[in-house]
Structure formats: structure tokens, C-alpha cells
């Protein structure tokens, strides 16, 4: 019996092989791009933070604050004139702070994005992500590309290795001038962040410059954070993103 060859893009054995890795990587760039074009998404505010901060846990304050901040931001964004940008809340798509961010946007009746990644523990997509705006990544670096490329601002709530990784990624891109536009960074919870990262020590040891401390700002409650975000987003005048999808519009 003659066996017909399989088209390469339908050959699952090839796509799952080492040789197919570049195709898988490209798919994690192009599939979200197509979805963002379809859903007319171009500007986001990214919320980072631990999946372990639960609604009823010992540090539940941060969960509730993230939810409220996201609600305030989404309510304001939805009220912008039609020809203005719409700033969608984007999270890592899992539980904890990520869930709180998506939930707050949902509370306001807005759309919200989840960039999930498959992990052995903790990371499962939360139920507050909008239909058509939930994504599942295998590679951390393609996921982080979409965090950074659409971001107009970032809020980092308390978190562990993942949050620190994502925070330092954005700060490094800003510090080294690799961004075509600034991404303002807000560290939520001054007492936590000053204990976890001694930025002043990095300056004293000349590991960073004093002006690098201007790359971020501490905030401590939803109203303060919202006011700060509102200020930078209102003043933001850079090109729409993604830069290579100029036809995307918010309404």
C-alpha cells in the first residue's frame, strides 16, 4: 500500500521535533499578532505579580488592590473618546495578581488579555480573560516579547522569580535604550520592593547610575497608582503598537 507524503505544515511529528522549533517559535509570534489585529488591540497596561497572592490569603490586600486598580483603569479607558487609544489590562493569565488584574477589568465591563504559559505548578488560565484574548505560550521569550511590545506602562505587584525576571527585563530594555518609546514602571508596595531589591545599594556600588532610579516609581494604593498611570498614559504620544500593524485602530 502506497503511503502518501504529509504536507510539512501538517506533519505533527516534524512540528514537535527539534527541527521544527523555529516554526513553533514563529507561530508564537504570528498567532498572537493575528489575534491582536483581529481584536484591534494595540496598547496595553501590563500587571505583573505573584500567582500565590490569593483573594483570601495573608497578603490578600495586594489581590484586592490589583483588582481595584484594574477596574479604575479600565473604566477610565473605556470612557476615552473614540479616536483616542484604549488601554487594555494585560496579565500573565494565571492566578493570584494576574487573576485580580483580569478580574478588575472584567468588573468594569472591559476586555482584558491573558498571556499564559504552561508550567508544572501554579499556572492555569484564569476565567476572567476575555474570549479571543487568551494565549498559551511554551516559550518564555515569545511571551515576554508580547508583554513588552504592546505595553504603554507596567505595574509590578509583589512577586517571586517570575515577577523579578519580567521587571528586570523591562528595566533593562529601558536602561539600554532598546525601546522605541518609554514604558513607565510602577512598583506597587514600597515596603515590599525596598526590602526585596536594594536599588540604592546598586547605585552606591556603581552597578547602576543614579538616574536609573528614575526608570520606576513606587505606588502604594489603587487611587495613587491610577492617578500616576492616568498621567503617563494621557501624555503618551508615541506610535501605536505593534509598529508593524499600522492599520490597527481602537474603534
Overview of the structural elements:
This protein has a 7-stranded parallel beta sheet, sandwiched between helices. The N and C termini lie far apart (56 Å). It has one domain (41-235): 3-Layer(aba) Sandwich (Rossmann fold). It has helices at residues 12-15, 21-39, 60-78, 97-107, 140-150, 161-175, 190-196, 199-204, 222-235, and strands spanning 43-48, 87-91, 112-117, 134-137, 151-156, 185-188, 216-219. The chain is an alpha/beta fold. The longest helix is centred in the first third of the chain and has 19 residues, at 21-39. It contains 9 helices and 7 strands; from the N terminus they run H-H-E-H-E-H-E-E-H-E-H-E-H-H-E-H. Helix 2 (21-39) runs parallel beside helix 5 and helix 3 packs parallel to helix 4 (97-107). Helix 3 links the parallel strand 1 and strand 2.
Question: What brief labels describe this structure?
Answer:
251 residues; alpha/beta; Rossmann fold; seven-stranded parallel sheet; 9 helices
Gist of the model:
The chain contains 9 helices and 7 strands; from the N terminus they run H-H-E-H-E-H-E-E-H-E-H-E-H-H-E-H. By secondary structure, it is α/β, with parallel strands linked by helices. Helix 3 links the parallel strand 1 and strand 2 (87-91).
* CATH fold-level topology: Rossmann fold
Tell me the name of the CATH class.
Answer: Alpha Beta
Give a short account of the largest sheet. 7 strands, parallel
Question: What is the count of helical runs?
Answer: 9
Provide mean pLDDT, rounded.
Answer: 90
Sum up the overall morphology in one term: globular
Quaternary state reads: single chain
Give the class from helix and strand content and strand pairing.
Answer: alpha/beta
Please state the second-level CATH architecture. 3-Layer(aba) Sandwich
Radius of gyration, CA atoms, in whole angstroms: 19 Å
Give the proportion of residues in helices: 40-55%
**Widest β-sheet, arrangement of strands:** 4-3-2-1-5-6-7
Low-confidence stretches: 244-248
Number of domains: 1
Report, as a whole number of angstroms, the end-to-end distance. 56 Å
Please give the number of β-strands: 7
Proportion in β-strands: 5-15%
The H/E string reads HHEHEHEEHEHEHHEH
Amino acid at each position: 500500500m502506497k503511503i502518501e507524503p504529509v504536507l510539512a505544515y501538517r506533519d505533527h511529528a516534524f512540528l514537535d521535533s527539534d527541527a521544527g522549533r523555529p516554526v513553533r517559535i514563529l507561530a508564537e509570534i504570528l498567532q498572537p499578532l493575528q489575534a491582536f489585529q483581529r481584536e484591534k488591540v494595540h496598547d496595553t497596561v501590563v500587571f505583573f505579580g505573584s500567582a500565590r497572592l490569593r483573594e483570601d490569603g495573608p497578603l490578600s490586600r495586594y489581590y484586592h488592590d490589583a483588582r481595584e486598580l484594574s477596574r479604575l483603569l479600565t473604566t477610565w479607558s473605556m470612557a476615552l473618546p473614540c479616536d483616542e487609544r484604549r488601554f487594555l489590562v494585560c496579565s500573565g493569565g494565571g492566578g493570584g495578581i494576574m487573576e485580580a488584574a483580569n478580574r478588575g477589568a472584567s468588573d468594569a465591563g472591559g476586555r482584558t488579555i491573558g498571556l499564559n504559559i504552561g508550567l508544572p505548578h501554579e499556572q492555569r488560565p484564569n476565567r476572567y480573560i476575555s474570549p479571543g484574548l487568551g494565549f498559551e505560550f511554551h516559550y518564555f521569550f515569545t511571551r515576554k516579547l508580547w508583554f513588552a511590545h504592546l505595553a504603554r506602562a507596567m505595574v509590578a505587584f509583589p512577586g517571586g522569580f517570575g515577577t523579578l525576571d519580567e521587571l528586570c527585563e523591562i528595566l533593562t530594555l529601558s536602561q539600554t535604550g532598546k525601546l522605541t518609546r518609554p514604558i513607565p514602571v510602577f512598583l506597587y508596595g514600597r515596603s515590599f520592593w525596598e526590602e526585596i531589591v536594594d536599588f540604592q545599594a546598586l547605585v552606591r556600588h556603581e552597578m547602576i547610575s543614579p538616574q536609573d532610579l528614575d526608570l520606576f516609581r513606587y505606588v502604594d494604593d489603587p487611587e495613587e497608582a491610577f492617578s500616576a498611570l492616568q498621567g503617563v498614559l494621557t501624555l503618551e504620544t508615541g506610535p501605536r503598537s505593534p509598529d508593524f500593524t499600522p492599520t490597527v485602530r481602537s474603534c
